[in-house]
Queue: 2 jobs
Job 1
Amino acid sequence: MRVNLRKLFLIGSFAAILWIIVSYMSTLESPEPVKKFNKVVMIENTLNLLEERVDMQLKESNKLLDRVKQHLKKTEYLAKERDAKDQMDADISAFNPVLPVLVIACDRVSVHRCLENLVRFRPSKKTFPIIISQDCGHNATYHVIKRFVDEDSSITLVRQPDLTDIKLPRTKLKFNGYYKIARHFRFALNHVFKTLNHEAVIIVEDDLDISPDFFEYFLGTYPLLLKDPSIWCISAWNDNGKKDIIDLSRPELLHRTDFFPGLGWLLRQESWEYLEPNWPPAFFDDWLRNPQNTRGRSCIRPEISRTYTFGKVGVSKGLFFDMHLRHMQLNMEYVEFTKMNLSYLIKDVYDPAFKQQAYSASLKTAAEVVSYSGGPDDKARVTYKDAKSFQKAAKTLGLMDDFRSGIPRTAYLGIVNCYIRGRRVYLVPEFDWVKYDPAWG
Ligand code: UD1
Ligand code: MN
């Protein structure tokens, strides 16, 4: 009887719990179909909203991704630049370079002006011994040079021994001077590289003035010459170096160029070894402007020249001097090139950035460029399609308009850059540039 009561109590409780659960569930469910429909619409709306948000988020993420990509590109560029710099620093600190200065002299007694400046601005006799090579057997000039040699053991003199006339057909007699210059350069460079076995040399002509940072310029850029096999020379000269077409506020700025500028230049022994066997009988500078002779390599040149030529009376006579050379700007500010990061000039780093700058500049006509009076941060691009249109634009801009082996002065990858009325200007080929065309002149 007690057991049965217990059973009954258990069944009763179970039924009561069941009833509570069922009645609770029934309050949860909404029996009306309209309410159900509203809920579906609401869910649909919410889903649509969510989808829109996801879309927006996706767009934002893509934008962010683009920015990350751009940043990575920049970081990659900076890393390339840093690596190049690290390597150059390692190079320059691993040895104490000796960079002799070779002075090419003939019959100008004014060579004293050149020598005085070299002595005045030279920071170290040990790093920069001066070697004067004299051609022409001119006695008065010899005595001027002798004064410097006698006073300073780091200054030496060598004399070009072959003073014979070079036999030339009558039509070429007027070029006699250029034949003698080429013969003298061959002798002098053989003396420096073969007799004295120097690693590199800075070549200066007797009618050149130098800037106060001339030596610092070559010392700072020498590692580039060692590091980058696409560079064969460092020059102190900007062929388009007149004050109206350069940026006077950027004395530290350097460029790559496919046009050999000469007029104060640094050459390695290694390069002389392959140049010397084919050295030309005359016009050696134009010969060095033919890419076939320099293995298609480039030079470094400054925005503002580190030399100035005062030799109005010379082998090439005075017209060119009065038209151009007289107006060239000599840099007077001292730039500490040895403390600067110059790895932006390494080919891998320089080429893509240079092309990007040039081709992204806004398109203008040469006439618009020379009458511009806007802000300083802008940059402009003027295009040319052939030799004639190049020359026309160059004339308007005030640039040199001649070619050697099809290369315009200061050109790099077919592009000439200068600075006019507060902005960088690029004279850019309109066509897909592959190489210079010797037929242009
Ligand atoms: C021009 C170039 C010069 C280049 C030369 C070679 C300019 C401003 N000048 O000479 O850079 O080296 O063409 O083609 O672009 N000399 C001799 N022996 C001679 C005559 C001259 O050694 O018989 C020396 C001079 O001392 C001087 C150099 O050669 O150092 C150039 O002579 P210069 O008379 O100045 O000729 P440029 O017309 O300037
Ligand atoms: Mn000269």
Note: The chain has twelve helices and 16 strands.
Job 2
Amino acid sequence: MDSQAAEQRVLELHNLLNQYNYEYYVLDQPSVPDAEYDQLLQELNKLEEQFPSLQSPDSPTQRVGGEVLDSFKKVTHDQPMLSLGNAFNEGDLRDFDRRVKQTLDEDSYVYVCELKIDGLAVSLKYENGLFIQGATRGDGSVGEDITANLKTIRSIPLKMNQPFSIEVRGEAFMPKQSFVSLNAIRDEKGEEPFANPRNAAAGSLRQLDPRIAASRQLDIFLYGVANPGETGVTSHSAGLDLLDELGFKTNKERKVCSTIEDVIQFIEGWADKRPDLPYEIDGIVVKVDSLEQQRELGTTAKSPRWAIAYKFPAEEVVTQLIDVTLNVGRTGVVTPTAILQPVRVAGTTVQRATLHNEDLIREKDIRIGDYVVVKKAGDIIPEVVNVITDRRTGDEQEFLMPTHCPECESELVRLEGEVALRCINPKCPAQIREGMIHFVSRNAMNIDGLGEKVIAQLYREQLIHDVADLYTLTKEQLIGLERMGEKSADKLLAAIEASKSNSLEKLLFGLGIRHVGAKAAKTFAQHFETMDALAKADIVQLTAIHEIGDKMAEAVVAYFAQPEAQELMEELRSAGVNMTYKGPKLVSVAESDSFFAGKTIVLTGKLHQLTRNEAKDRIEALGGKVSGSVSKKTDLVVAGEDAGSKLDKANELNVEVWDEQRLLDELNK
Ligand code: IVH
């Protein structure tokens, strides 16, 4: 065969194999016997051997790369990968619906209900139709590049049937059957079995050798486009249809529901049918369908306000409570933890459960020695549901909370209005240790390899006294620790080094200032841009930011007023830790100059020259406040195309109304 004929045949084989692959793995409707597929694949392999220049990365022969990786590269997501808020009962769902209705200020919206697949979230990037990169969610902004492993999932097209550039999101999972056979094999080999299909899927995709992932029979359902607005669709359900058309595997058990009643009915139906599915689901995801309305509802730092995950109630088991221990947290709160006779619940062995606080122990009348009902709240956190009093023998012991801190022995206090007991000694070693654990956690400085155990060890060995000391650690010191080899020490040092260049909000959140969560940290970072500027700000400057209330402002001022905090900033700075904001900048115009300063503005209808979020960001940057509903307090309504009830209401209340162009003119002034 000459090279031209070979090229022609290679193309034919690509098309045939892609089609057969699609029919088999995506549609679950094979049209040819396996042997025929194998034969064609072999033919392609041979041709590629003969004409190596014809072997392209999207060739059906390239699913399992030969290379074993050293580590996974980090991938910064173009659009953050958010998680979902949870609903545990009908009431939570109705509350969600009420919030949606209130914000949209109208009744015309519909939901899409989807199965919540229990696997791990991944993002797939295509350029000109070719699969170029696949990543884990990670902390939502930065994940790991697991392209080679994802390529082994046969339902992921290496080439879409349109030359689009698009990023799609979905859930990779291990079907129940694959999980059962995988664990049987592991048992036979004397290897530790996986606790559940989700862990098995995650473990498989975290293998550096793609051949292992290839052997694990993983699958995927795509549930969304990262930036659906750019594809021209106007609803989530149309986005899913588009994914189908492009050759992706989506879950067909989805339903458009026009009322929350329909949603609840859909959920009830699946609670019964759930065990019959060939894969595990842990709930139902409910999403507002219209993209325009999704934009209007917006997101919090963590999750969209337009979607919620209903979680099926957890499995409950009975076990004995052997003892109660105490934990001192980062803010000094002392929490009692139940030590349980180990028991399996929802896929893992549980031996501890939080008891939250003394009131709860009294309320449930939990005693040491009791038989208790245990479940995993949200399928994750073990919790004591209630006591089986019938099984009491009389030998059970009441548990009394201590009067002094179990770590530093200072007297515990109960702050007004709180149920918790607190240790208020700022030098309490437990608080310092927990503070450091928070500092390195994902949403804070995100230092991989610095888990609770390593921090506890470093602290115990007096190698670190505060978070700044993390940046003085040496390889020799690390290698001295338990279970720390040279390789992990190198990795850890590299992760610590990398954290120095984090944007300001991560550091700010990591400091653990009272009331300052991830979202507030971001807001402060955006507004002040440097740690210095924030540290110098007074209450008036802080509360001038719309999202910032008195309590938070006071906490920030009080934090930076402490000499210890100033010292810590100096230490971090001289260690080379970045203290500036690196994200997108707010336009800085003196608020008093702007028309928008101090005004409440409502955006409604379709905007064409900028997105709803861009408009919101720019108005807010100029000191305006963007609200979701029109009231007497509204100063201005900007009405785009097809504006509906909000425009009517504005007219009714005599509120000033602008069109998009007028808004742009004012913004550009
Ligand atoms: S939508 C911004 N749909 O559940 C919304 N998530 O915290 C992104 N999941 O991390 C998620 N099935 O991994 C969505 N049909 C579905 C899903 C689903 C499973 C996972 C996803 C996400 C987690 C929710």
Note: The chain has six domains: 3-62, 85-311, 317-398, 429-499, 504-574, 600-667.
